[in-house]
Write a structure and sequence with these properties.
heterodimer; A: 831 residues; Aldehyde Oxidoreductase, domain 4; seven-stranded mixed sheet; five-stranded mixed sheet; 28 strands; B: 284 residues; alpha+beta; Uridine Diphospho-n-acetylenolpyruvylglucosamine Reductase, domain 2; Uridine Diphospho-n-acetylenolpyruvylglucosamine Reductase, domain 3; Enolase-like, domain 1; 3 domains; four-stranded antiparallel sheet; 12 helices; 26% strand; binds flavin-adenine dinucleotide
């Protein structure tokens, strides 16, 4: 049974639960801080990459002579020049023992496998001179047939259909299955479907998860300094610790000789959860020259060569009884890996595998994914990573089921979801959901939207044939977050654990350093973690300094992704802080001349029970630093560490409702209202949570309506700039109404659940459900994402709403009357 | 992104600018607000050796009244045009178009003349200029000439401005008292129009006496929807009458296909958007 709480009455007195403004924002917003590209070291050289314009080609020659002659060029190097020193880029999660994994050289010397792959690096005294010289590198290619379309690639044999890597003989990388019948967590899905075909309902659909680009604000950048005893890499990364490990594992430099620093990092959304060719090349160049080296990508390079996300076909079969009780759900995925198996790679769809059953009590479930190699940019984590895809699939299907049964989509969901008194609940995917209250969140969301009134308006508009139709979209989502119990990761063959580490250091002046192994890149950890530590130790919020993102300052950690920082990293901090208190207690007792058993700690003070005697923790810290009068055998330090490995994921959930107006004359869509009631357990900082939810919503809505990475038939990224990759701005969104129910998680001390991905996961199906709902009476049951006005209009007029095709808009082409300098046959452009 | 290296001149008179153009010929490019030129240079789609900046030529800036026309200097930023009372009074469809052109930053940098000289068929100013029968004042080594709007736009990114010439100002015949509307169809706010329609009409006692309609992004240049104009003349400003006339918006168009829509969809949009623009201009 889950208890949904009112916030404690004394909440305002404490740091936890307060709307603290983010400590880090002044420096982040003004940019007066240490972004990687702001770092300048004595004697530093600058790199520019020469990239392949072709999706798949053999490199027949690289002529660097002219580039080497260019002013202030230090050197021009190819894969052949750098050889073994380059190392390789690794896949940390082979999802099956037999996974086909192409070797990924950061700079191949024989063959390129996607447009944007690096074939040479120019090193010069300035970034401009490096870029100028990169234009002069003359690369000759033999173009090879490219595997581009996901479905065709999955079926290709080489004789028929192109192979992304001909030497592998197949584009199929791995096939991974979860079957509740085999796992013993449920029945057989085939039986359920067979039964439903005779006396129930079977719904079969195929959905496209279009390819997306993380499009973080700060382009990726790397600086490597080889001049000290240790090699130092600064990188705009989410994962300094994993990066250090991977550098050691693949470039032959001992881990103890490597320091990785993620200074302030401007966003990631999963896009900086990667170990990149650019980092490896900068590393190799700096080592070879013995000089500090910097590489900062352009926005075009970022869109083209930073990893992409999603890109799946989902074949779905839902079996139900006639009344809408679901009896089985079967999921068959094709997932596009792009040209290489990235760091998490095929693990992304697998992270979704446990979520397609979502908040529902399905008796049978089967998930299978075929990962496929193509000649496109590699894919990896993108906000939500597997779980948005899962949520989209099931929430779209629940709406289809409701339509089939003729019931309200919320009623169909309630019929199937886990009731709040049934927690903890073991799902058909084998996870134990600790807590939740779907009824409460849904009731609140309905009230916020004015659900019944809008349904009435929808009826009126339908009856009058209004050219503007109204749709109401529902998404009742859950997700697993707080990656991750190490044992679970081990059972899935992931290459690392999921614990997190923290240290709390009491300084002599009473200030506190809280060190976390998570690595913030815009989330606000410094603020939220300060609030937690301030409450725990009873010190002022301002007195806590949160340190992170440097393997020398925070030597242990597993970084930030998967909504893990608070629920795993925050818990580690709580435990480290508690150890500080434990260590301080005997010292306090000694100084207060009391027995340890009589000393209690509260509000930052150790006091002797039943007396007015006491000392603040800061005073104990000073006394410990002086060490003049410590009890025998007690060390002169309060500093403490904790490594916390979660025993379970946690499961935030929420009900998102959205109203969309569809202009049936043009297909234009207008968001009318968006409300959500999320249950993320106890909230540390409501302001930060609101920021995460709002940003997440926009990102998820953007998948529904605007964003798509499109390749043309030659494998060029057509949506290669923000003119064509439609990233929304504030002008495109509406004011969201957000609220919370609070059902504390039972798996961590703070009772918190992850919120970093919630908005993104929930909102995409809410919007698409609303769009489809608006036009369902016209005989439409799907519109492919992004739901462009053109697709909507074509669906309405019966012209179909197929894949996005066509060229980019030509606003910035070689239009200004002169011959351009681009030569597609020789590459070397920064397209 | 870093452009290839170039030299830079910032003359203070049109004569000096023309002399520089003559001297450097093919190797030179004029820069106005740079909002279209700089992306092209930064993406290295073009690499002029000399960039001639018109930003210091004061005479090219501002809006003035010249009898039966208003005159907009080529270097007048969009934001200034958008806020100008003369433009609002006598050429309101331009004010309407500027409101939704790109975003505030670009409106403060980009210029009226730069946008028209760039001649992007998706640019928002071509259709209004065409609808209003603008005259383009072009200065070259041989002096100054005036080109009618119908002859100014030649093709995709191509105008009547010669390589050794500069667009100095644009004369807009006054359309005082005309109703005006610019209807722009986009997916996100800061986008170029997928299709847009500039409509300005003179309504006399509930009847559309005259209409001028320009189409954006329905061909390789901005287009005048003459069929619609003809069909509207003398019609009542009613939904039905305008709908019938707007159906002719596709005549003579050759719209592009791109990620935002194919040609058929654009043709359909043109009829809907034309109807809406005309009704709004006529006092809706
Ligand atoms: C992100 C973005 C979004 C945009 N969205 C829109 C939009 O929605 N609608 C829209 O209409 N525009 C849009 N624009 C373009 C904007 O209007 C530009 O300002 C305009 O196209 C060019 O004007 P400019 O003054 O910046 O000219 P520049 O970029 O400086 O020059 C453009 C071209 O015109 C030539 N030129 C400039 N002035 C003269 C002159 N006086 N004589 C001869 N040749 C000249 C230059 O040599 C160059 O070839 C957008 C631009 C950007 C960057």
């Amino acid at each position: 049974m889950s208890t949904t709480q009112e916030r404690p009455a004394d909440a305002v007195e404490r740091e936890i639960g307060r709307d603290r403004r983010r400590k880090e924002d002044q420096r982040l917003i003004t940019g007066r801080t240490r972004w990687t590209d702001n770092i300048t070291l004595p004697g530093m050289v600058h790199l520019a990459m020469v990239r392949s314009p072709f999706a798949h080609a053999r490199i027949t020659s690289i002529d660097t002579a002219a580039a080497k002659e260019s002013p202030n060029v230090v050197d021009v190097l190819t894969g052949a020049d750098l050889g073994e020193s380059l190392g390789v880029n690794i896949n940390a999660w082979p999802i099956t023992p037999g996974q086909v994994t192409p070797t990924h050289s950061p700079m191949p010397s024989d063959r390129v496998a996607f447009a944007g792959e690096i074939v040479a690096v120019v090193i010069a005294r300035s970034p401009a001179e490096a870029r100028d010289a990169a234009e002069l590198v003359d690369v000759e290619y033999d173009v090879l047939p490219a595997a581009l379309d996901l479905k065709e690639a999955a079926a290709a044999t080489g004789d028929q259909g192109a192979l992304a890597h001909p030497d592998l003989g197949t584009n199929k990388s791995a096939y991974w299955v979860f079957d509740s019948g085999e796992a013993g967590t449920g029945g057989s899905v085939e039986d359920a479907i067979a039964k439903a075909r005779t006396d129930g309902i079977v719904i079969e659909r195929e959905y496209r998860q279009q390819r997306l680009i993380p499009a973080f604000m700060e382009p990726r950048s790397t600086v490597v300094d080889p001049t000290g005893e240790q090699l130092t890499m600064w990188s705009a990364t989410q994962i300094p610790h994993i990066l250090r490990f991977a550098l050691a594992a693949t470039t032959g430099v001992p881990e103890s000789k490597i320091r990785v620093i993620a200074p302030d990092v401007g966003g990631g959304f999963g896009g900086k959860l990667q170990t990149t060719p650019e980092e490896w090349i900068t590393w190799a160049v700096a080592r070879r020259l013995g000089k500090p080296a910097k590489y900062t990508e352009t926005r075009s390079e970022s869109l083209m060569a930073g990893h992409h996300g999603r890109d799946q076909w989902q074949r779905l079969t839902l079996a139900a009884e006639k009344d809408g009780t679901v009896t089985g759900f079967k999921v068959d995925l094709l997932a596009d890996l792009g040209a290489y198996v990235s760091l998490v790679g095929g693990g992304i769809p697998v992270l979704g595998a446990f979520m397609y059953n979502s908040i529902y009590k399905f008796p049978a479930y089967r998930f299978a994914v075929q990962t496929v190699l193509t000649n496109k940019t590699w894919t990896d984590a993108y906000r939500g990573a597997g779980r948005p895809e899962a949520t989209f699939a099931i929430e779209r299907m629940m709406d289809e089921l409701a339509a089939e049964v003729g019931a309200d989509p919320l009623e169909i969901r309630e019929k199937n979801w886990i009731k709040h008194e049934e927690f903890p609940f073991t799902t058909v995917a084998g996870l134990e959901y600790d807590s939740g209250n779907y009824e409460a969140a849904t009731a609140r969301a309905k009230e916020m939207l004015g659900y019944d009134e809008l349904r009435a308006e929808q009826r009126r508009r339908r009856e009058s044939g209004d050219p503007v139709q109204l749709g109401i979209g529902v998404s009742t989502f859950t997700e697993m977050c707080g990656l991750a119990p190490s044992r679970v990761l081990g059972s899935l063959d992931y290459g690392a654990g999921g614990w997190e580490h923290a240290s709390v250091r009491m300084l002599a002046t009473g200030k506190v350093e809280a060190v976390t192994g998570t690595s913030a890149h815009g989330q606000g950890h410094e603020t939220a973690f300060s609030q937690i530590v301030a409450d725990r130790l009873g010190v002022a919020f301002e007195d806590v300094e949160v340190l992170h993102g440097d393997t020398q300052v925070a030597p242990k950690g597993l970084d930030t992704y998967g909504s893990r920082s608070l629920v795993v990293g925050g818990e580690a901090l709580v435990r480290a802080a508690d150890k500080v208190i434990e260590k301080a207690k005997p010292i306090a007792a000694h100084l207060l001349e009391a027995s340890v058993d009589d000393v209690e700690f509260s509000g930052g003070r150790f006091s002797v029970r039943g007396t007015d005697q006491g000392m603040a923790i800061g005073e104990i810290a000073l006394a410990t630093f002086a060490a003049h009068n410590l009890p025998d055998g007690v060390e002169a330090s309060l500093d403490s560490d904790a490594t916390y490995d979660p025993v379970n994921f946690n499961y935030p959930h929420g009900t998102h409702l959205c109203a969309v107006e569809v202009d049936t004359e043009t297909g234009a869509l207008k968001l009318r209202k968006y409300v959500c009631c999320d249950d993320i357990g106890n909230i540390i900082n409501p302001l930060i949570v609101a920021g995460q939810v709002h940003g997440g919503l926009v990102q998820g809505i953007a998948q529904a309506l605007w964003e798509e990475a499109v390749y043309d038939e030659s494998g060029t990224l057509v949506s290669g700039s923000f003119v064509d990759y439609l990233l929304p701005t504030a002008a495109d969104t509406i004011s969201f109404e957000i609220d919370h129910t609070t059902t504390p998680s039972t798996t961590n001390t703070l009772g918190t659940k992850g919120v970093g991905e919630a908005g993104t996961i929930a909102s995409t199906p809410a919007v698409v459900n609303a769009v489809v709902d608006a036009v369902r009476h016209l005989g439409i049951n799907d519109i492919q994402m992004p739901c462009t006005p053109e697709r909507v209009w074509k669906a309405i007029t019966g012209a179909g709403g197929g894949p996005t095709e066509g060229a980019a808009m030509p606003h910035f082409d070689a239009s200004t009357g002169m011959e351009g300098t681009v030569d597609r046959t020789t590459g070397g452009t920064d397209a | 992104m870093i452009p290839a290296q170039f030299d830079y001149l910032a003359p203070t008179s049109v004569e000096d600018a023309l002399a520089a153009l003559a001297e450097h010929g093919d190797d030179a490019k004029i820069i106005a607000g740079g909002q279209s030129l700089l992306p092209v240079l930064r993406m290295r789609l073009n690499a002029p050796e000399m960039v001639i900046d018109l930003g210091r030529i004061e005479s090219l800036r501002g809006v003035r009244d010249d009898g039966d026309a208003i005159v907009i200097g080529a270097m007048t930023p969009h934001a200034v045009v958008g806020a100008d009372p003369l433009v609002a009074e006598h050429a309101a469809v331009i004010s309407r178009a500027v409101e939704h052109l790109a975003d505030a930053q670009i409106r403060h940098r980009g210029t009226f003349g730069g946008a028209l000289a760039h001649a992007d068929p998706a640019g928002d100013l071509g259709a209004p200029a065409l609808a209003l029968g603008a005259e383009f004042v072009i200065q070259g080594p041989g002096g100054t000439r005036r080109v009618a709007a119908d002859d100014f736009f030649v093709d995709l990114f191509e105008t009547a401005i010669g390589e050794d010439e500069i667009l100095t100002e644009v004369r807009i015949p006054k359309h005082t008292g005309w109703g005006a509307h610019y209807e722009k169809f986009v997916r996100v706010a800061h986008q170029w129009p997928i299709v847009a329609v500039a409509a300005t009409v003179r309504v006399d006692g509930g009847t559309i006496a005259e209409a001028r309609i320009g189409l954006t992004n329905m061909g390789s240049t901005p287009l005048r929807a003459r069929g619609v104009e003809e069909a509207l003349a003398g019609q009542p400003a009613t939904e039905d009458a305008v709908r019938a006339a707007a159906a002719r918006a596709t005549e003579g168009t050759n719209p592009p296909s791109d990620l935002n829509g194919d040609a058929d969809y654009r043709r359909h949009l043109a009829t809907v958007i034309t109807r809406r623009a005309v009704l709004a201009a006529a006092g809706g």
